Amino acid sequence: MVFPACSGLKYLPAGEKLYTGSEVILVPTNKLDKKENKFIQNIEKTAIRPNPNQVIFGMRPKLWMYVKAGENPTGKIKKWLKDKGEAPVLLSSIKPAVTADLIDAKIFNIGIFNGYTESKIVEKGLTGKIIYTSYIHDRYKIKKVTYAVSDDSISLLIQKEKNNSIIKKGEDYNLGTLKNERIRIDAILKNKGYFYFDPDFLLFKADTSKINHSVTLQLTLKDSVPQDALTAYRINKVTIDQGEQTEMSIRSS
To answer: For FRET with 57, which of 82, 113, 194, 208 sits at 20 to 30 Å CA-CA?
Structure first.
């Protein structure tokens, strides 16, 4: 008698089912090792929202607390129950098609450019879950990185530091790595006086090959970069007053 009450199912609105979570299934074109399989699944799971109600030993005490308090609790105890409880996550509130699109966007960012995900609702009694099946191929790998930065001074600085790039030939494509590389280059430029530069001014263009699942990257500047961002600033003079405060002025090169 206690179990069905604490499971929260007894108090669901008429015609509704409780969402109990999602499952991710990968269907690869080639066999994945365990490490790669787990990595891709974890990436996909970050796209799945919302989380289901908390379950402890098959029961949902926080859900029970919420519904037991009622819609408009008045006493201190019921208000406390409402505050500490969880509203039911209903299956009808889940949008599987939207989540499938988000999953595809997530795996695109790690080099699965032509994958796609299908969703299926599985109902059981008063509960339901979603199964997401992703059809994927091998991740694209970096074949080469070229540089076509239009500003000669900035291009020279980037070329001098290209051996320290975190983008490595032969490694899997990963959008996060590209973003971190832009931040690395921005730090170099800032250190050379380009105070108004921004990582977003750098653009990676990708040329992919389906034959061997490779991608060639070209680093460029965006078309509309402010002139201040392309100007290196240098120290002009330093003034030290009696209050031991230092005043520095800069000038553009």
So the answer is: 82
Distance from C-alpha of 24 to C-alpha of 32, rounded to nearest angstrom: 15
CB of 33 closer than 8 Å to CB of 41: no
Tokens at 202, concatenated? 């750098």
Q: Which residues contact 159 (CB under 8 A, 6 or more apart)?
A: 147
Give the sign of the dihedral formed by CA 152, CA 158, CA 161, CA 167.
Answer: negative
Residue 24's H or E segment, with its range, is: strand 18-28
| Closest residue by Cα to residue 48 from 113, 107, 136, 109 | 107
Which pair of structure tokens corresponds to residue 208?
């992919």
For 132-149, the pLDDT digits (tens) are: 999 999 999 999 999 999
CB 61 within 8 A of CB 2: no
Q: Please tell me the pTM assigned to this model.
A: 0.84
CATH architecture for segment(s) 141-252 = Roll (3.10)
User: Strand 127-136 to strand 141-147: parallel, antiparallel, or no bridges (unpaired)?
Assistant: unpaired
Query: 185 near 197, Cβ under 8 Å?
Result: no
The residues spanned by each domain of the chain are: 2-136, 141-252
3-state secondary structure of 191: helix
